[in-house]
Design brief:
about 240 residues, alpha/beta, Urease, subunit C, domain 1, TIM Barrel, 2 domains, 5-stranded mixed sheet, 7 helices, globular, disordered N terminus, binds zinc ion
């Protein structure tokens, strides 16, 4: 919920900075943050250093001893938000229309290592029906995979929620009935909402951007009130990874 109120602040996600930082060389990383947000308490602290060992944050504070061999990352002009996992970015898509094509697309993706099947329900003039999506969910489930569904419209969201996908992504237009059904079917909402500043940067008029953002926040609150699990996604394309 806090996220939606960040406005035009540049937010850097630690988890995006080190997506593949396994303990190969076990180097300590020291991040200097201009402002650090603590999601647990919803508070901010100025001028904090974060020490990261492998994938673990080992210390946070303003007066930390930084090991001399630590790799330093200077984000002293930025706001840093630890602990979030980006649940939504954009892979390549392929076209699958008939049941044969859907089955083949699911199996081919699994063959090549997909751990989740992601479908675009309504990113075009037609939308997959609930039955189409049920077919995909069943095919993926045979291999123990879950289905994430990109939905932009109410119609697409309803179809995906009815079919029992694991998550709907974006979900900008959701009625209270959709949300009640999402709760019942254990469907997670991966919101990918942009800040007002980002909407304006994308070409929206300031007033429209403000209204759009308010709508995003309002539906997030309704989702929260309905008990739907809400997950964060940046919706980043490769060029803006790490900032939103
Ligand atoms: Zn998407």
């Amino acid at each position: 919920m806090k996220l939606a109120t960040l406005g035009k602040t540049a937010v850097v996600l630690l988890s995006l900075l080190f997506p593949a930082n396994r303990r190969v060389n076990a180097q300590i990383i020291a991040v200097t943050a201009g402002t650090l947000i603590d999601p647990d308490t919803g508070t901010e602290k100025a001028k904090q250093t974060i020490l990261i060992d492998g994938e673990t944050i080992v210390a946070v504070g303003s007066e930390l001893q930084i090991p001399s061999d630590a790799k330093r990352i200077d984000l002293s002009d930025e706001t840093v938000l630890p602990g979030l996992i980006d649940a939504h970015d954009n892979p390549e898509y392929r076209f699958a229309d008939s049941r044969d094509e859907m089955q083949k697309a699911v199996r081919e993706n699994i063959y090549w290592g997909a751990r989740v099947i992601k479908i675009v329900v309504d990113g075009q003039d037609y939308a997959y029906s609930a039955d189409d999506i049920r077919f995909i969910v069943a095919e993926a489930a045979r291999a123990g995979r879950k289905v994430a569904a990109h939905v932009q419209t109410e119609r697409g969201a309803r179809a995906a929620i009815e079919a029992g996908v694991a998550s709907i992504e974006h979900g900008w237009v959701l009625t209270d009935e959709d949300l009640a059904l999402a709760k019942k079917n254990n469907v997670v909402l991966v919101s990918t909402d942009f800040t007002v500043a980002e909407l304006i940067a994308d070409g929206m008029e300031p007033d429209a951007a403000k209204r759009t953002h308010e709508k995003y926040v309002e539906r997030l609150k309704r989702a929260w009130d309905a008990g739907v699990e809400v997950v964060f996604g940046t919706d980043v394309m490769a060029d803006v990874k790490g900032a939103l």
